[in-house]
Design goal:
Largest sheet: 6 strands, mixed
Mean pLDDT: 90
CATH architecture of the largest domain: Roll
Helix content: 25-40%
Strand order of the largest sheet: 16-20-13-19-17-18
CATH class of the largest domain: Alpha Beta
Number of domains: 4
Strand content: 15-25%
Oligomer: single chain
Length: 601
Amino acid sequence: MLVLLSMYMVDRQWRMMSQMRASMAEQADDIRGLRLSLSQLQARGVGVASASAGNSAASETPDVFARAQQISQKPDFAEGDWLVSAFPVGLKTISPLVSSDVYASYVQDYVLESLLARSPQTLEWEGLLARDWQISDDGLTIEFSLRDNLGFSDGEPLTADDVAFTYEFIMDDRIAAPRHRATMEKISQVVAIDDKRVRFEFSEPYFEGLGLAGEMKILPRHFYEKYLTDAETFNQSRGLLMGSGPYRLIDPESWRPDEGRVELVRNQRYWSSVQPPYNRIVWSVIENDSARLAAFRNGSIDVYSSKPREFRKLLADPQIDNSTHNHEYMSPTAGYSYIGWNSERSDGPTRFADTRVRVAMTLLTDRQRIVDELMLGYAEIAVSPFNPRSPQHNPQLQARQSDLAAAKDLLAEAGYADRDGDGVLENDAGEPFEFELVYFQDSDDTRRIVLFLKDLYARAGVLLVPKPTEWSVMIDLLNNRNFDAITLGWSSGVETDIYQMFHGSQVEDGGDNFVNYKNSELDRLIDEARSTVDEAARMQLWWQAEAILHAEQPYTFLMRRKSLQFVDKRIHDVAETRLGLNLNHVPVVTYVPGAIQKYQQ
């Protein structure tokens, strides 16, 4: 009888908890509906009285939300449904600062917010958490004023103290964030003047000072502060993620890589009057290219990034044509792929420490054939880390053309010759010119490129050994500098700061100069460019830096790829902007009309 009674009580408690959760969800939906109604009334010019003398979030619609608010006025606009995408790799961690791949940043962008955001239409800075800001005449101080009623997803307020704490947390040597510390080193301190005002002080002028301060993702002190005394727990964490953004983890401490997906739910406490449209943002981990396409075909995911050969086939596929819309574009901030030549390993300098060898490898790499034959023209040769559409790039500087004879001459100068007539180059000690090229094992395009290069290099007597590798292992190889050569890609921005990748100081302590490249003149130019506020003068410095990279080839800069994407027609208002496709923009501006939604709460 006691057992039965206990079972009854547990069942009753479970039903009560379920009813409470449902009631809370309904209340949150009601609040969102009221906010949306207020926003729509304000958009029509109807005055709305505020319960807090004009200081409520509902009374304020920042410019950064203007596009999202316009979308919410469309006749078929509806909240609800899910936006489901796929990651081609498994994530090791989504914790801020200790994560190092672009995919983790996609997740964090929905959860963490910054003081400023770039307009996808004008590329100008707009206030997000910050209402306004002032820059001192000497450029050494930037003061931000925060908006009213900001808060984190757990209901705690967001104040200037959280902004100051975020900087302190990043700069604490106990936190495994060397890349972030490197970017923040020109900031001398961040001071919370009061709850609503925060001041960034710089040790010297920095050309991207406003962006550096404005784009720092704000962390809640009350959630992360404990890890300053338990840094190793944070450094080894997998899913410690809480912020003020429109979406949140169901449990900010519970995500694990073995879940095989990342799922964010709507932040029901989101501070803005313009609320996010989707109930959930989901990424499934599907590492195999064919499996990802199959998932897109059967509707399990809404977005599919295609490869060139596949893109052409899918354009002619009736099923794809009827159910999706496609986008082919070269993003103005498109990154580049490259082969990084490691100049030093634990046992000393490698063959790639010799500039002649690196230049020879670029001359052996027929990038035009890669673009034409493997990428079917959906790419362009990369000259340098600077986008050719940016004033950072010197238009007089052209990509090196493939030249087998010149490459052989350079390798001969470096001491390589076929000493035993077997068709393979050897050094003075008789060691063959053989190296491993690490690449991501589940990318069919990259695999084809590597096999193509293997044949090209063999013509010069150079033996390339392909080393397909899973993503987590690649990250470890980078961190330990334990590879001969590696092919990867860097994302890019409106203006690219190359300090992290090519400055000699970033070789040590987990910096991103993992090819161990050092050039004192390049270091000087980078330092001077970063401290030069005058744009015309700064561009001349970047041109000189670009000339050194072009001459010395620490990377063979391969190409910039076009984005080739298919999106389920169920997703409305997808558009190309100056920052690329708006599908991943925050604030979120796409939606699914109510009549065609397929996912419940």
